[in-house]
Every structure is written in structure tokens, then in C-alpha cells.
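Q: I'm building a small set of examples for a reading group on sequence design. Run inverse folding on the following structure and report the sequence directly after it, with nothing in between.
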């Protein structure tokens, strides 16, 4: 029945849309914790049927959980689901992994092994089970302090996406954190920053910064104690370790008079922004609750926990929708294991990843040796290609290139865009003008945008375009494939014809 229902919801999505309603009390669970509630909408109707789906995985191949909200689930199926969820949990608890680690570090270097296939530190009595596996030997203390280089990155873009900070970006973030006077870092999905802080703290006596890693990758429990790592799902604010892990986080956020806390988060770029924002707001609320008395006495009721949210610049409007106090910095964040997100490239090949923060932009000093400079008018550091527009009265570039002002659009646009009189807006010169008659992506009517559509369920946020938009995208793809197919067939026929012609010439040559 669940499979049929899932198919029905998937099919219905094409004729309407999906909206996230969020986490609700009593939601059913999958291996990734409590599911999120969605609603399937149909064009012309206010609201459709609601259903639960996995919070972390948007692809059914990664997590097949699906349940209609009004569906009656039998006890047999509930028992089977509970058994399935249990079987997909890690084989060892965090505490057991901590004990294993203590025994591992006591071993001589020659007996320290790491199984690359199981991604597990091996004790001598476990070697026999892993004889057919590839493993690393002589694991040093330095390697144990850098687990992100031992573990294979999980590269599911929508669930894990462990694209790890390059040393340049990681060192910049840490130097910035120190210069701003923060002594505690809540590292949400930033394992490389966490390990850099942990490594320095273990080697330098006067290093005052401490970090707590919250991450969905349980493999890190092999290297960190329960006060240094919490198994956490940032899409539904779920602590797998229960109340004990929740309390660990709460205590870490409690700052003394001479301490300051900052949250640094680097979520998967394919994740749901609204789900992430909901979890971050809950972490901020947890931080505020620990300091409630101090804030009330100082009149800081609306103060937010200082935050660095690392995300691509083209999500700016979505982030500002949930956090109006945030602003985007020009600093380009780069990653070791991502082919495209690299600093130093030019044009559109530059990394699109930026830092969004609720701190004052004027205090975020960007490195001058990399070409960043301070704009006295905007009171913030900008990239070398970001020039101040006197008409917009702002440094308008988002992608590192110099943008140009369009008098007709009354705003700055990308240098590769041109004003289209048919569309009455700027776009690529090769764009299709078929969208001239398109209105709202939700209801198809003109006069308003998707974000202000009266048909949109405002308890959630639209995740999928409406029927018209999807049909147009499908048509464009079909046309492109057809055009490509024609070109390929023409090229193949020409090649065959050329070969035949060459062969004929050879045959007729005396």
C-alpha cells in the first residue's frame, strides 16, 4: 500500500506541487529520525493530501519511507518498521566507540589498522573478520586527529554531501572566529573545522577555542568523545543520542561571562532550506534559553546566536526569507573534494559558495592578499571584481564578476545578460522568450510572484514549480534532446558517407 501511495503522490506532483509543512509532534520515524510532513497540492485547490517523508533523503533510493498522514498503519507494519529502523542503526553505540578508541591508542603503531571498506578502526582481535578487506596500517596520532582524511566522504548531494573545506577556507574561518573573540564553536556539519580546532587545542596549551561537532555521519563517533560529537540530523533537529546528547549541546551553548559562542554550519546544498532554517532556529532558541536571564536584563530579547551559514550565493533570497538579519559576504569558500568549488578560478568558474552571517559585515575582515578590499560606502569587504554602483548605491556583484547596471530593469545584472524587450527584463542573449506570458509559478496567473501567491499554503514553502513551469521545462529538454539527436544522426551519416567515398576512391585508384 505504501508503494502505491508513494507512486500516487509522485504522479500527482506533476499536476500541482509539494509544500513542506515541517516537523510535527508524533511524526512517524525512519532510520534518520522523525519524518517531515508535506502536502501535495493541485492547481486551483487550496490544499491536497498530506504525507510523511524522510527528512534527510529526498531520493526514495536513499530512504524509501513514505506514509500518508491519514493512513491507518497496522501493528504488524509498525513492528516491521521498528525492526527495520533498528537494523539500520550503527552496530556500536557512541560510548562503545569511545572505549574502542581508548584501547586503539594504547596499541603500538604496528598494530593500528583502519579498514577502508568498513570505515572502522580495527582492534587486533577483529583483524580476522577483515582479512579480505583493504586496510591502512600504522595509523599515527596525526591521522587520528584528522579523521576527515581517513574517512571516505559521503557525497550524496541531498543528504550528506561531505564536501570538505580546503585548508585555505578552514584556516580563514578559524582565524576569523578567533579575531572576533569567540571561544566556543558549534560546528554543525563542519567536521574539518572541528578537527582543526580539536587538533590545536590538544597541541597548544594557550589555545582557548573549543568545538562541538553535530553531524549525521556517525563514523566520527570513533574519534570523538560524547562531549565533542553528537550524532545529529540538521533537517529535523534530531539528536540520535536522545536527551543525553541534547543536554550535551545545551551545556556547550551555555556561555560564561568571558566566553562567546558562534554556530558555523555547512549544510548539503541540495537540502531543503526551510527545513534547515527551522533546525537552526531551534538551536538558536536553545542558546537563548541558556542565557535567558542575562539577555532579559540587558534588553536583548531579539538577539540571535552569532552564525556563519556557508551556502551558495544563489540561495541568498531563500536564506534572507527565514533570517532577515543575515547578509552575504563576498568571501569564496572552496572545498578539497569538489571539482568546481575552487578558489582562484575566473569568470563563472569561481566558487559560488559564500558565508551568510548575522554579524555586522564591517567586522568580517577578508584577506587583502586575495584581492578583497573595504568599500567605505557599503561598510563591508568586497571582492576585487565587485564595484560600487552609484545608482544602486551598493556593491551589487554576487558571483565575483563586475556586474552592469540596467536602466530599464533599474538594477545591476550579470555581465553576460542583455535586456530583452519581449520579456521586459535582462537575461542571457540566447534565452527563450516563451516565458513572456508566464505569471506565477504556482497558479499561473500574472500580477504576482510565487512567494506572494494567494493560492500558496503559507504554513509551508513551495518546493516544486507548478504544472505550467514543469511542462515548459520538459518541452525545452525534449527539444534540446531532439536537436542533439538530429545532430548526432547527421554526424554519423556524414561519417559513414565520407568513409564510403574514401573507400570508393581507393578502389578506383589504378
Amino acid at each position: 500500500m505504501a508503494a502505491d501511495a508513494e507512486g500516487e503522490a509522485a504522479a500527482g506532483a506533476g499536476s500541482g506541487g509539494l509544500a513542506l509543512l515541517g516537523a510535527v509532534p508524533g511524526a512517524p520515524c525512519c532510520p534518520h529520525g522523525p519524518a517531515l510532513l508535506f502536502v501535495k497540492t493541485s492547481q486551483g485547490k487550496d490544499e491536497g493530501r498530506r504525507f510523511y517523508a524522510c527528512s534527510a533523503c529526498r531520493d526514495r533510493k536513499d530512504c524509501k519511507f513514505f506514509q500518508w498522514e491519514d493512513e491507518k498503519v497496522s501493528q504488524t507494519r509498525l513492528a516491521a518498521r521498528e525492526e527495520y529502523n533498528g537494523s539500520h542503526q550503527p552496530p556500536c553505540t557512541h560510548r562503545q566507540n569511545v572505549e574502542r578508541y581508548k584501547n586503539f591508542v594504547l596499541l603500538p603503531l604496528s598494530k593500528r589498522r583502519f579498514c577502508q571498506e568498513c570505515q572502522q578502526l580495527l582492534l587486533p582481535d577483529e583483524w580476522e573478520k577483515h582479512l579480505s578487506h583493504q586496510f591502512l596500517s600504522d595509523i599515527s596520532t596525526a591521522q587520528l586527529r584528522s579523521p576527515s582524511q581517513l574517512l571516505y566522504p559521503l557525497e550524496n548531494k541531498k543528504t550528506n554531501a561531505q564536501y570538505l573545506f580546503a585548508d585555505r577556507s578552514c584556516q580563514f574561518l578559524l582565524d576569523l572566529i578567533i579575531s572576533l573573540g569567540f571561544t566556543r564553536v558549534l560546528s554543525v556539519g563542519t567536521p574539518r573545522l572541528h578537527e582543526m580546532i580539536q587538533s590545536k587545542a590538544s597541541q597548544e596549551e594557550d589555545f582557548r577555542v573549543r568545538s562541538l561537532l553535530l553531524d549525521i555521519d556517525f563514523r566520527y563517533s570513533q574519534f570523538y568523545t560524547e562531549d565533542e560529537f553528537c550524532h545529529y540530523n540538521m533537517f529535523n533537529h534530531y539528536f540520535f543520542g536522545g536527551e543525553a546528547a541534547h543536554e550535551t549541546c545545551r551545556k556547550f551553548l551555555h556561555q560564561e561571562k568571558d566566553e562567546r559562542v558562534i554556530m558555523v554550519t555547512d549544510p548539503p546544498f541540495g537540502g531543503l532550506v526551510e527545513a534547515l532554517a527551522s533546525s537552526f532556529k531551534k538551536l538558536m532558541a536553545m542558546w537563548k534559553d541558556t542565557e535567558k536571564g542575562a539577555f532579559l536584563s540587558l534588553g536583548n530579547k531579539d538577539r540571535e546566536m552569532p552564525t556563519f551559514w556557508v551556502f551558495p550565493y544563489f540561495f541568498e533570497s531563500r536564506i534572507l526569507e527565514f533570517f532577515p538579519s543575515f547578509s552575504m559576504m563576498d568571501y569564496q569558500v572552496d572545498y578539497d573534494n569538489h571539482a568546481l568549488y575552487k578558489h582562484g578560478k575566473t569568470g563563472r568558474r569561481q566558487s559560488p559558495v559564500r558565508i551568510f552571517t548575522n554579524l555586522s559585515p564591517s567586522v568580517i575582515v577578508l584577506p587583502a592578499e586575495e584581492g578583497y578590499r573595504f568599500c567605505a560606502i557599503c561598510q563591508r569587504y568586497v571582492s576585487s571584481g565587485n564595484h560600487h554602483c552609484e545608482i544602486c548605491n551598493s556593491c551589487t556583484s554576487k558571483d565575483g564578476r563586475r556586474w552592469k547596471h540596467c536602466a530599464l530593469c533599474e538594477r545591476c545584472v550579470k555581465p553576460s545578460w542583455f535586456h530583452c524587450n519581449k520579456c521586459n527584463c535582462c537575461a542571457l542573449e540566447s534565452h527563450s522568450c516563451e516565458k513572456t506570458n508566464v505569471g506565477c509559478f504556482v497558479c499561473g496567473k500574472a500580477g504576482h510572484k510565487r512567494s506572494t501567491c494567494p493560492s500558496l499554503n503559507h504554513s509551508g514553502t513551495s518546493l516544486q514549480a507548478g504544472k505550467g513551469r514543469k511542462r515548459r521545462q520538459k518541452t525545452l529538454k525534449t527539444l534540446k534532446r531532439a536537436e542533439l539527436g538530429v545532430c548526432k544522426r547527421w554526424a554519423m551519416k556524414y561519417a559513414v558517407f565520407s568513409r564510403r567515398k574514401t573507400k570508393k576512391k581507393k578502389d578506383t585508384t589504378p
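The chain has twelve helices and 26 strands.
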